[in-house]
Automatic annotation (TrEMBL):
PROSITE patterns: RIBOSOMAL_L6_1. InterPro entries: Ribosomal_uL6-like (IPR000702), Ribosomal_uL6-like_a/b-dom_sf (IPR036789), Ribosomal_uL6_a/b-dom (IPR020040), Ribosomal_uL6_bac-type (IPR019906), Ribosomal_uL6_CS (IPR002358). Belongs to the universal ribosomal protein uL6 family. Transmembrane segments: none annotated. Part of the 50S ribosomal subunit. The gene is rplF. This is Large ribosomal subunit protein uL6. The keyword Magnesium does not apply. GO terms for cellular component: ribosome.
Amino acid sequence: MSRIGRLPIDIPAGVTVSVDGRDVFVKGPKGELSVTIARPIEVAVEENQVIVTRPDDERESRSLHGLTRTLINNNIIGVTQGYSKGLEVVGTGYRVQQKGSNIEFALGFSHPVLVEPPAGITFTVEGNNKVTVSGIDKQAVGETAANIRKIRKPEPYKGKGVRYAGEVVRRKAGKAGK
């Protein structure tokens, strides 16, 4: 049995979980999320707990069991606490500014780069080199942060670029001097 999949998910106060066929809807103080369950997995809500079960020990059922439980748990955490991902802009002349709900990067290109937040995502700028991406959907927050980092990844010689908060960039030695 999957160690993660067999754990029941406790439903905190103020959160409602409803199962409609193959869809699980989670509604909480910060918003509403839904996840579609893959075919062999079954989900039931029993007295303030969500129980995820699988019908057999086939390879596909085992792999989907823990995944399904984690997706539902992530939605419950998202509608109660939310998720956030920090980014740092490192480099001389590299900076970020808030422009309404959008953010504008100066990353050494000949033009500023404007990033618009997707639905359900908010940007917060602290100083001129820190950005926080926050929202209720863990997957959307992570993907948005990855797309921002992709604009100018940290390079290995000077470490300039956009990196995750706390990310360690492996540095390379440059050309050997004579």
